[in-house]
Design goal:
Layout: E1 13-14, H1 19-35, E2 47-52, E3 58-61, E4 66-68, E5 75-77, E6 79-82, H2 84-87, E7 96-99, H3 106-119, H4 125-141, E8 172-175, E9 199-200, E10 209-210, H5 215-220, E11 229-232, H6 243-257, E12 261-264, H7 265-268, H8 278-283, E13 287-291, H9 300-308, H10 313-318, E14 326-331, E15 334-340, H11 341-347, H12 352-362, H13 370-382, H14 393-399, E16 404-405, H15 414-424, H16 430-435, E17 461-462, E18 465-470, E19 476-480, E20 483-486, H17 503-527, H18 533-545, H19 547-555, E21 566-570, H20 575-583, E22 591-592, E23 601-604, E24 610-613, H21 619-631, E25 635-641, E26 646-652, E27 658-665, E28 668-677, E29 682-692, E30 700-701, E31 705-708
Parallel strand pairs: 6-7, 11-12, 11-13, 13-14, 22-26, 29-31
Antiparallel strand pairs: 1-2, 2-3, 4-5, 8-18, 9-16, 10-12, 14-15, 17-27, 18-19, 19-31, 20-27, 20-30, 21-25, 23-24, 25-26, 27-28, 28-29
Helix pairs in contact: 3-4, 3-19, 11-12, 12-13, 13-14, 14-15, 17-18, 17-19
Length: 713
């Protein structure tokens, strides 16, 4: 399931096929023969991986989809029950498939068979009567145990879903609490990556340009650090051979601003890493001036737009302390151009409808929350052109707008840097909210925070906490505080419930129980040639013929306090068929979830009440499902929740083995469906569903987990 703590990176071990492996293959053959496996899985090769379960038992197995068994805590091969169309298709997935199981008792199947024969058109009257007579006598002769259909049954876990017994064995790469780091108390090894340290922004600069050599004497005498301006430019307009003109423009801008010093990146950076401190240098400057340059065919506005498209120019404009809100633009051979801050925002930036909120925030005319600041800033940075020196340059630019800093390095991904910034600074649980989003697309980048349900980050109230960043695996975080439930995929299980008997149901049970006795007494009395024996025989025969309806009546009725289960099915089928296979008959107890997934649909009934609808009856859903099936990137699944008696149709790349509650939104709980990559002991988000808010009270707590937003292929 995971790597042990002594391993620095996931190690893939190739082993020969041992006697144990051959035995497993023989067992698999028997499993396929009687369980209904559709063929050899495409990923079964000679390569085996180290697997450790929550009870620290180590095995070596081929890579496939597995789940954590609640029977013995082991990692078992995932078997998914599916509809016939999916079962008969080629098995090109990483899990086993089985046909949908039927849990209904034999007596109820006979009763349903009789009813089906009566209701089905095209069957002759003779065959209908024959079915009724044969079915009724079978039920009477079989002496059905009515007590099994009445009263309260014992429950394996009364009132609670099946627990999800995950255990994280490894260390975090970076943690909120330093006691949890593996190198605490010792010198950090050179190969260990450090995500970041909680440091404030810099208040000074190391190099500065002078307008005249005489100004050096004042600095050498130890006088206070002088005022300076920052000259902003883009390298595409000022290559190395034009740096002399750039310095001249800086000297001109400094004199006109009334200072004797200026900072320009081409001459005042000790090394390339200081680019990640530009925001700090701008904060300490008196003003920011802009230098542009072209070939003479472009106007000043076109050159300014080219300037505004670059990533690092955004914080220079946002953090500029120009007291008059004026920006002076300098260009070789041209008089200075003056633009107000709002003119610059309106005429230069193509995303002014987004970035203007940042300008007004830093000008104290509009206060954004910490969450809104991070979201809008990410949108603005990613909307600009960028030449990446490090993979996380956008996040390092965002860092300049925040309080804390992390060490800039090429070893970190964009998500890791963003996650570390969220841990170091108070970002209103931004990471926790992001985990609860359902992406619009399968490969949606993390910085695009569009939700398939149309919710915003601030609409989600998380109930979890990110405690660290995953070690060895990129783009994973460690989260504590989940409550979750395991999904049962291989088959249905008996759903125990409380039966409250009505007068009609008690009478039906009495007739069903005594019909065989009355019929037998009538047969005996007829043998003694008693004329009134035919009356008794008639009542016994009538009870026998009515046995199918009586049995369905007894087994039906409301399901009080049903045992909570999460059943999974691959593919689509009618909910009436599902209810018949779980409860024995279709009484209309199961309903479609009105808003449980992006595929869910609903409409008002005749009284204006909310009514969940079959999603596949809507053309747009059918088109979306057909597109998903044709691409093969995702699969269609159904989730049956016996607690609220609802069925949800959803799409996911892999069947989620558990659902973890991460927060709430709009009066519903956000449930994250996760799959398990047991080779690294990592859970990956497959989908996010909206569940009834009461499910949190009957889901058990889950130990801290390592979770990733998107699973590696």
């Amino acid at each position: 399931m995971i790597a042990d703590s002594n391993r620095q990176a996931p190690t893939y071990v190739k082993l020969g096929l041992s006697a144990e492996t051959n035995l497993d293959n023989r067992r698999l053959y028997i499993w396929q023969r009687f369980w209904g496996h559709t063929g050899e899985l495409p990923h079964r090769q000679g390569v085996q991986y180290r697997m450790i379960d929550p009870f620290y038992r180590v095995r070596f197995r081929n890579k496939d989809e597995r789940y954590i068994s609640n029977w013995d805590g082991g990692l078992k091969e995932l078997v998914v029950q599916c509809v016939d169309s999916v079962f008969d298709s080629p098995n090109d997935v990483h899990w086993n498939r089985a046909r949908i199981t039927d849990l209904s008792p034999f007596s109820l199947r006979v009763a349903e068979w009789c009813q089906w024969g009566i209701e089905r058109p095209g069957i002759s009257k003779r065959r209908r009567i024959l079915r009724r007579v044969v079915g009724g006598f079978l039920l009477i002769i079989a002496n059905v145990d009515i007590s099994a259909l009445l009263g309260e049954k014992n429950q394996s876990s009364p009132g609670f879903y099946e627990g999800f017994h995950y255990r994280l064995h490894g260390y975090p790469e970076f943690s909120r609490n330093q006691m949890e780091l593996h190198d605490r108390g010792s010198q950090r090894a050179p190969h260990v990556r450090s995500i970041g340290v909680r440091t404030l922004f810099s208040l000074g600069i190391f190099f500065i340009c002078l307008t005249s050599p005489s100004q050096w004497d004042a600095m050498a005498r130890g006088e206070p650090f002088p005022e300076y301006i920052v000259l902003a430019y883009v390298q595409a307009q000022f290559p190395k051979e034009m740096q002399g003109q750039l310095i001249q423009l800086g000297m001109q801008a400094a004199r006109e601003a009334g200072v004797h010093h200026f900072w320009v990146a081409c001459s005042c950076m000790a090394n390339t890493d200081e680019i990640y401190h530009i925001s700090d240098f701008v904060r300490g400057a008196k003003a920011v001036a802009i230098a542009i340059n072209g070939d003479g065919t472009q106007g000043s506005l076109a050159l300014l737009k080219q300037f505004g498209e670059r990533v690092w120019t955004l914080p220079e404009i946002l953090l500029a302390a120009n007291s008059d809100n004026m920006f002076r633009i300098y260009s070789p051979g041209r008089p200075p151009l003056v633009l107000t801050r709002h003119q610059f925002m309106r005429d230069v930036w193509s995303d002014s409808h987004i970035s203007r909120q940042l300008v007004e925030h830093f000008q104290n005319s509009l206060q954004l929350s910490r969450l809104q600041l991070s979201v809008i800033a990410l949108q603005s940075f990613y909307a600009r052109d960028r030449t990446l020196y490090y993979p996380a340059d956008i996040e390092y630019a965002l860092m300049g707008l925040l309080l804390c800093r992390v060490e800039a390095t090429k070893n970190h991904t964009a998500f890791e840097v963003f996650a570390s910034l969220s841990l170091l600074a108070d970002s209103d649980a931004m990471l926790e909210r992001m985990i609860c989003l359902q992406p619009m697309k399968r490969n949606q980048p993390y910085h695009i925070m569009d939700d398939a349900y149309g919710a915003k980050l601030y609409d989600i109230y998380p109930s979890i906490q990110v405690s660290g960043i995953g070690k060895e695996l990129r783009n994973t975080v460690i989260i504590d505080g989940f409550r979750g439930a395991k999904v049962r995929w291989k088959s249905f299980a008996p759903v125990n419930s409380v039966k409250r008997l009505s007068i009609a149901r008690r009478a039906a049970a009495m007739v069903m129980t005594n019909s065989s006795i009355v019929f037998l007494i009538g047969v005996i009395l007829v043998a003694f040639k008693k004329w009134w024996a035919f009356i008794i025989l008639f009542f016994g025969l009538a009870g026998s013929l009515a046995a199918p309806e009586l049995l369905i009546k007894i087994a039906g009725g409301k399901k009080w306090q049903p045992q909570p289960w999460l059943f999974g099915i691959e593919g689509y089928c009618e909910i009436g068929e599902i209810e018949s296979k779980i409860f024995g008959s279709n009484q209309g107890h199961l309903r479609w979830s009105p808003w449980g997934s992006p595929l869910s649909r609903h409409k008002p009934d005749e009284f204006g009440n909310v009514q969940g609808c079959d999603p596949m009856k809507y053309p747009e859903v059918q088109e979306k499902v057909n597109r998903i099936r044709s691409t093969g990137e995702s699969q269609i699944f159904m989730l049956v929740d016996t607690h609220v008696m609802e069925v949800t149709l959803f799409a996911a790349e892999r069947p989620p083995i558990a659902f973890l509650l991460g927060g709430s939104e709009g009066g519903m709980a956000r449930a994250i469906g996760v799959s398990l990559d047991w080779t690294t002991n990592t859970l990956y988000r497959e989908c996010v569903l909206r569940m009834d808010s009461t499910v949190g009270d009957i889901m058990g707590p889950v130990r801290r987990v390592r979770i990733g937003l998107r699973r590696r292929n």
